[in-house]
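Please fill in the sequence for the structure shown.

STRUCTURE ENCODING:
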């Protein structure tokens, strides 16, 4: 597999993960840093995400997918915070 095809597959996996999590708002504000820390409805939602995610991307560990989700979520929150702060100076 070439670097370009790996990058494309990672982009697809990321987009698919975002889509799946976007349907489960309980995961947006979870303070968990690892899927083992999820409890109750958060755990149920993550299990649903991983079940569907594994249909398209089998073999990806839950911990890796969760780390990817945290990275994407945190980047988005930083982006939004920066632009809200920037808008307040205009």
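FILLED IN BY: designer on duty
SEQUENCE:
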């Amino acid at each position: 597999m070439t670097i370009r095809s790996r990058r494309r597959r990672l982009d697809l996996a990321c987009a698919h993960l975002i889509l799946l999590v976007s349907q489960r708002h309980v995961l947006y504000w979870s303070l968990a840093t690892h899927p083992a820390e999820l409890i109750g409805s958060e755990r149920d939602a993550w299990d649903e995400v991983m079940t569907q995610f594994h249909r398209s991307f089998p073999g990806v560990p839950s911990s890796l997918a969760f780390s990817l989700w945290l990275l994407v979520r945190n980047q988005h929150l930083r982006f939004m915070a920066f632009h809200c702060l920037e808008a307040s100076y205009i």
